[in-house]
Design brief:
The protein has about 60 residues and is an all-alpha fold. The chain is built from 2 helices and no strands. The longest helix is centred in the last third of the chain and has 24 residues.
């Protein structure tokens, strides 16, 4: 159903990254573990977005 919807997934990733950026300011006063977890989540989303744009799919780390 969504196998060839590259632009849809890119759009969703950009929207979610925007939401994360909005809440980033609120997290700056929270615990450091929440900040690190959020940074890992955002960096993973950015990496997946780059993979979807450059190679038209996401490369799995574990096979």
């Amino acid at each position: 159903m969504l196998a060839n919807q590259r632009w849809f997934f890119l759009l969703v990733a950009v929207i979610l990254l925007g939401a994360c950026a909005y809440y980033w300011k609120r997290l700056s006063k929270g615990p450091w573990t929440l900040q690190i977890g959020s940074a890992l989540l955002v960096s993973g989303a950015i990496g997946n977005g780059i993979d979807r744009y450059m190679i038209h799919g996401v490369v799995d780390f574990f096979d």
